[in-house]
Amino acid sequence: MKPSIPRGTRDFGPAEMQKRQYIFNILKTNFQLFGYAPIETPSMENITTLTGKYGEEGDQLIYKVLNSRIHESKDDKKEILKKEFNIALEKSYNSELLTEKALRYDLTVPFARYVVMNHHSLTYPFKRYQIQPVWRADKPQKGRYREFYQCDADVIGSDSLVNELELLAMMDKSFSELHIPVVVKFNNRKILSGIAEILNASDQIIDITVAIDKLDKIGKEGVVKELLEKGISETAIKQLEPLIDLSGSNNDKVTVLNTFLSNSEIGKKGIEEINFLLSNLKTINIQHIKVELDITLARGLNYYTGTIFEAKANAGTFTPSILGGGRYDDLTGIFGLKGLSGVGISFGVDRIYDVMEELNLFPPDVNKVSTTKLLLAYFSEAEQAHCIGLAAKLRSKGINTEVYPDVAKMKKQFEYADKKQIPFVGVIGSNEITNNTIMLKNMLAGTQEEVGFETLTEVLK
Fold first, then answer.
1. Whose C-alpha in 18, 222, 294, 416 is 20 to 30 A from the C-alpha of 261?
2. pLDDT at 67 over 80
């Protein structure tokens, strides 16, 4: 049978991995620049850790892991378990006999679980970054995968909006270095709660926000239809329409919101937080990203309570969300640790990669299939041992070096270097061994010269 991989997953060859590492390295450097430390969590979590944290739609996308075996039991119980197993598969019912674990859906909920389990050993505010894959049982399409990487930065144990400002500064620096033109849209869940309060539909805030969040995908008519299906009154929807159509500058939008939410205390608190961010954008010297208030931005995750972010590429034909995040006031509370507020963002590396490919933003030399700087080539077995020893000395100097492993024609060795885009080839013959030199060829320039070890290391470094 011809081998294959599951839909929504991908292999990455050396050239693709070089590009992905380029993105990872920029993000990792900036995470550390802003004081974030790395952690990792398991690929699998207990299913009770994940369910109920992402909304009804999100919970349906969690990959459940079947138990490796059903515990031994009497014959009559085995038959009952078999029937339960088949029913569970049909109904996706979470029986503990069938599944106790699931693949992580994101990195934020596992992070909250980590904080609770390690609470007494952490220093607050605790700032962590995490670069790991996540899994979602989603329908695969361009920019949407079932296995993909997230690069998260979160700070927990602080209510200060300075954290949101620094995350905006981190976005600006990171997207500037990746050369991606980006619009960062932001909103505040308190604004959305205030709107629901004004509409006398506070108990339906999740239904309202989930519908509004789909505006870009299903349009205004689709949002109205979904709101009606969720039981939101036509009168409330009519009140809501001017806000869905809201346009103008950030300040213009705040002016309209001030009027609309004048009788909502939680709504006014949301406006206060929005004004703090807008008034301090110049302080943090935002230069690359465009920051835009968008009250239709809701984000489909139940745990956000304050500022919410979403970033999209502002060029090309492929403009998916490439970053999301926000403030969560009590995510650790669901695990028994109350009163820890946090805020974080997640860079979607796979979509960032796709956007950079379309816009041709990777540096010309980043997609080399090899990181080797020098290939040592030779004519016969007599020079092979010398090359092995020379390679060891070069590697001790930090120079990425390969020795061609087989005695072969020089043409074949040069073809190998050319295909792998190795920039230098060092040829070793009997004369070079006698003179303790190397014939160094620059593959790009086509020039060559005989050099000693010291000169060789200077040229290669």
1. 222
2. no
User: Considering the chain, what percentage of its residues have pLDDT values greater than 70?
Assistant: 92
Q: Which two tokens stand for residue 417?
A: 């270097």
Same domain, 305 and 392: no
Q: DSSP per residue over 336-370, as a string?
A: T--S--EEEEEEEHHHHHHHHHHHT-S-TTTT-S-
**For residue 225, how many other CB atoms are within 10 A of its CB?**
14
pLDDT (tens digit per residue) in 172-204: 999 999 999 999 999 999 998 898 898 888 777
Q: Find, among 134, 82, 79, the residue nearest to 111 by Cα.
A: 134
Looking at the fold, whether 310 and 386 belong to one and the same domain comes out as no
In a domain, 137, yes or no: yes
**Selection from 242, 257, 346, 344 nearest residue 293 by Cα:** 257
Is the CB of residue 366 less than 8 Å from the CB of residue 23? no
For residue 196, how many C-alpha atoms fall within 13 Å in the half-sphere facing its CB? 23
- CB count within 10 Å of CB 412 equals 11
Per-residue model confidence (pLDDT) at position 93: 46
Token pair for residue 126?
A: 């605790």
In angstroms, the CA 410 to CA 376 distance is 11
Give the domain CATH number at 402.
3.40.50.800
For residues 73-100, give the mean pLDDT.
60
What is the CATH number for 205?
3.30.930.10
**pLDDT value of residue 88:** 58
83 domain-assigned: no
Q: How far from the centroid of its chain's Cα atoms is residue 363's Cα?
A: 21
- Number of domain units in the chain: 2
Q: Are residues 280 and 354 in the same domain?
A: yes
Q: How far apart are CA 158 and CA 154, in angstroms?
A: 11
Percentage of the chain exceeding pLDDT 90: 63
Domain that residue 145 falls in: 14-63+105-359
245 belongs to a structural domain: yes
The phi, psi pair for 452, rounded to 5°, reads -85, 175
Do 163 and 260 belong together in one domain? Answer: yes
